[in-house]
């Protein structure tokens, strides 16, 4: 152990193990998901002689998987429902969410996500993988702390920051984009010291993930997940930049609409489906499966293709149509899915975009582990493909430059649309980098960046990001961004003046009353009620320990034994009564109140003596030598601006801060008070 720590270092060992575990988890899950999706196609294809049986197989299979996922998750760990990024965003700013980083949540997340994605519903795995990686990091920290005796438990935030990057990195085999994306969606302020940890762990994880694909003979060598073959000598013309810009602006409006629609559905479902946790996902799956049934409406929207197959086709660099007629599908994979004898490719793409848009918005609200990044990414690619095919029709001979003819590349528009729409929904720019790593080409770097920035500008002015929207819906304790027109508000305008505090002369009864009323994690310690000079702060747990020490079972039994000895009535029955007292009273509850008796029967029923003793103990002054006092709690002055307060709370992850005037405690401002004027 000492050799490993001295030669390799604790951080390197931890990050290597984290990357290795996450790569294995990602690869196994991908294998299981692909197997489930192929099983559905196998059942559908094997029943081609009877359309009714085909429909039943096509619909029943995903309904069973989704229902199992919802039921398993609700029973084992309801915290595993949803994406996980909003919760991780909250945890990384210092808030403790119970049961979100436990082993049973990890099991529920992995199994539930595998079943949900295996059903073929328009769901993603990028958000849940951030949560899965964080779960791995938390569990691995406990293991490493037990093995090496390190300080992992004290550096939880650093390890979780690296884990968020690993989650995206091994999901898309995009380590650089994964690190940048995790920073954008989880951190208001990012500690640069964690930068190398995220890059190293994400790179190692992505490498192992792709090596496993080669080892399983899925790939010949390590390549991008959705490798494109755009021409490099002239990928796009300068005259196409306005089309890319319009595409980005349109994706900005589309992203804002998606977030708004998703929020409406979530609020509706939370109100009406409290007792319908299994019925709601089953009904949604039934409707979506029915609409994507290939002989039905699915024939107009490539219903039989998985998300991976659809994205491969949409990113193809060759034009699908000539003058709107689908006639060159022979060399495109999965051509039968997009080709229809009565409908041209534009109608198919429009129908695909519209249907997938609302289907994804509804499906991502189901109470199962799922994300929204991949469905949005696919919709953006389809919209970009539609614009690209339209440009190819408008310029059938391509763009003329230097006497050469360069045809339009619709696949390039699909790449731009995918990055722009996913960036608009998540309010991130790093989707551009993820796209480059996914496709293996950066030939369209300029149009992608233009479209992503414009999409972000439009979406941020209309709606919060999808993750911030979920945070608001779940009412998680997170501080939103400070809007315009809030700079003239000061701390004295929002602070709570009725502060709960204790003094150096406080009795245990005062401490008990303050603990029963107050809700803050720490309580202010002042010199006296008259001076109100702030001396420090004490955590609630410390004060609870003081009360337990003062009124604990051991002291209670000692008192009763002395009382019994003084009265010479320490019989066997009395001893039995004393040994059964244990944790009879909660120190935070009011003391016992019983009538007193001096008879021997009162000693056999010792409650009156305990009540009298507790009253005496509660009136004694508190001995602060037995607790830890923070001598320098965070303080603000009354004239501190809301803008500065917001920055400090976001940077330091504060839960509250005391407001002082010349050293005197005058108020307290918490996360709630800062968040109210922000909204």
TrEMBL record:
<feature type="transmembrane region" description="Helical">
    <location>
        <begin position="12"/>
        <end position="34"/>
    </location>
</feature>
<keyword id="KW-0677">Repeat</keyword>
<dbReference type="InterPro" id="IPR001807">
    <property type="entry name" value="ClC"/>
</dbReference>
<keyword id="KW-0869">Chloride channel</keyword>
<protein>
    <submittedName>
        <fullName>Chloride channel, voltage-sensitive 2a</fullName>
    </submittedName>
</protein>
<feature type="transmembrane region" description="Helical">
    <location>
        <begin position="160"/>
        <end position="183"/>
    </location>
</feature>
<feature type="transmembrane region" description="Helical">
    <location>
        <begin position="241"/>
        <end position="262"/>
    </location>
</feature>
<dbReference type="InterPro" id="IPR014743">
    <property type="entry name" value="Cl-channel_core"/>
</dbReference>
<keyword id="KW-0406">Ion transport</keyword>
<feature type="transmembrane region" description="Helical">
    <location>
        <begin position="132"/>
        <end position="154"/>
    </location>
</feature>
<feature type="transmembrane region" description="Helical">
    <location>
        <begin position="376"/>
        <end position="395"/>
    </location>
</feature>
<dbReference type="InterPro" id="IPR050970">
    <property type="entry name" value="Cl_channel_volt-gated"/>
</dbReference>
<dbReference type="GO" id="GO:0034707">
    <property type="term" value="C:chloride channel complex"/>
</dbReference>
<keyword id="KW-0813">Transport</keyword>
<feature type="transmembrane region" description="Helical">
    <location>
        <begin position="195"/>
        <end position="215"/>
    </location>
</feature>
<dbReference type="InterPro" id="IPR046342">
    <property type="entry name" value="CBS_dom_sf"/>
</dbReference>
<dbReference type="GO" id="GO:0005886">
    <property type="term" value="C:plasma membrane"/>
</dbReference>
<feature type="transmembrane region" description="Helical">
    <location>
        <begin position="55"/>
        <end position="81"/>
    </location>
</feature>
<keyword id="KW-0129">CBS domain</keyword>
<feature type="transmembrane region" description="Helical">
    <location>
        <begin position="343"/>
        <end position="364"/>
    </location>
</feature>
<keyword id="KW-0472">Membrane</keyword>
<keyword id="KW-1133">Transmembrane helix</keyword>
<dbReference type="GO" id="GO:0005247">
    <property type="term" value="F:voltage-gated chloride channel activity"/>
</dbReference>
<feature type="transmembrane region" description="Helical">
    <location>
        <begin position="274"/>
        <end position="293"/>
    </location>
</feature>
<keyword id="KW-0812">Transmembrane</keyword>
<dbReference type="Pfam" id="PF00654">
    <property type="entry name" value="Voltage_CLC"/>
</dbReference>
<keyword id="KW-0407">Ion channel</keyword>
<keyword id="KW-0868">Chloride</keyword>
